[in-house]
Known about the structure:
The protein is α+β, with helices and mostly antiparallel strands.
Amino acid sequence: xxxxxxxxxxxxxxxxxxxxxxxxxxxxxxxxxxxxxxxxxxxxxxxxxxxxxxxxxxxxxxxxxxxxxxxxxxxxxxxxxxxxxxxxxxxxxxxxxxxxxxxxxxxxxxxxxxxxxxxxxxxxxxxxxxxxxxxxxxxxxxxxxxxxxxxxxxxxxxxxxxxxxxxxxxxxxxxxxxxxxxxxxxxxxxxxxxxxxxxxxxxxxxxxxxxxxxxxxxxxxxxxxxxxxxxxxxxxxxxxxxxxxxxxxxxxxxxxxxxxxxxxxxxxxxxxxxxxxxxxxxxxxxxxxxxxxxxxxxxxxxxxxxxxxxxxxxxxxxxxxxxxxxxxxxxxxxxxxxxxxxxxxxxxxxxxxxxxxxxxxxxxxxxxxxxxxxxxxxxxxxxxxxxxxxxxxxxxxxxxxxxxxxxxxxxxxxxxxxxxxxxxxxxxxxxxxxxxxxxxxxxxxxxxxxxxxxxxxxxxxxxxxxxxxxxxxxxxxxxxxxxxxxxxxxxxxxxxxxxxxxxxxxxxxxxxxxxxxxxxxxxxxxxxxxxxxxxxxxxxxxxxxxxxxxxxxxxxxxxxxxxxxxxxxxxxxxxxxxxxxxxxxxxxxxxxxxxxxxxxxxxxxxxxxxxxxxxxxxxxxxxxxxxxxxxxxxxxxxxxxxxxxxxxxxxxxxxxxxxxxxxxxxxxxxxxxxxxxxxxxxxxxxxx
Length: 688
């Protein structure tokens, strides 16, 4: 607003995150203020009824299914081509599924208020019809009371279902989240706004609109060879590849039944229930795939489901695609992963990569950051911090350059042939409301929704460390999140530090030019970390807000604010749950959120972190549970004790030489003579 709203002062504003609001004007004066009016052109989302046919696995004849699969002749797997054999393999399993598993039709009311049934709609119609009549107030009161009654009935039904389910199961969590209003029972994609201002309300139109948006993101830049262009260091091996039945049994048995079904219609639950009889033909198929170096065509189709990220829900650019692929193809990828992923993890990922590998994680990366930074502070130094930003990381990977790198790490020739076939162009369909878009072509990417995608990205991105280390910087990588830092003496001019950080940035961008990776310089950040001479704004690493002094005041305050509303939401459901259920929900929704950040603020003083500790105390008081009872009966220790235990666990892992090797430099063994002296002193004190 530019016009005063009270005297000569501008006190009244229109605050909104809707881009559709326009033409805000100052109107007539009411009392000592003027009216501020804003106009917004909004569409009313339509409620859509969606029906879909699903398998009723609870009433499946599993014994007959296993018998049928056992007596099936699978000899065609060795006689036919890989594509034909895999198609027939899938067709046989789907036909058995159709014969012995009943189906039922589900009707999804895509609405944010699942308790609004036909009775509620009838009450609303009566209220609208009574407008302007003498009995309107009575009808309106009856409408409100009726809707409230239906809401309470819905909550009661949900509570009964919750009590009948196994606590901690997927269905239990879904219903618990509904009661806490974390999400609706079913939600769809609302009307979408095009660039020309028009709206798309049909499912088919939304799917096409998303297809255009996603397709524009899958563009690989031109390559420009330089000093970081990969040269082939031929290291390919031959010999026998063991593909064992026990491996297939383990992979099938360990499947998660909650994993989404892909285009082949074979669910993870079906494969898990029949693992003992499916494993043998699957091993034969795996050996056939490796020997022919061909990934089956039926397994390369992707379903893309739009998922809202942030911003306005009406803008298609604010969505990202979730890729669904065939479950049986994921099983095959897990089986073959044992033949080459450990080799890549050892030689290709590098020691700085903390994502998508065993005994590594985001909390480990946070701990390494803080250990190295605090060590530099203790020696009276400061650090230059450079945070990079990769644009469209997993969706822009040159298949040819990736294959060149893979030939350098001792993989089997047959597996390299399978990987080349796996990396070929793939068809994809965007699904919205049961409708699908035109066919997209996915190329030059490590495909999302697959098992091999993350490890192949780590292989492709691993040599980016060369550019960082060439400038004398240390680095930590988590997936595509690369952050570099370098130690400087306390008196070093900030111009010198920023010049070195810009040089490091330029080297990394040169690596990106050679490898067709785009770094978004506008989203990158530089800062100087120091107790006494900090420079720069706060920056976010792995979801944690850091300030250049590492005081962590803002990060802890933001966490306390987030925990406060989560706690209030949880306590609103107190009448529906037992104390054990509420504490289980606390651990899942709040404690996990807090403890992820423990490595980032373990070093701060007690007065700074005290507000966070009080969050758990206030929650326990609301339940009339003491700290002692919470520990002894519900296995919930105070937060300060849990932080100490977490750091002891880091030391314990390092002593056992488990986890990231970067921890080992901070935990060193005592000399042998000192250990003997300590044992002798301990034995003497015990005798005394």
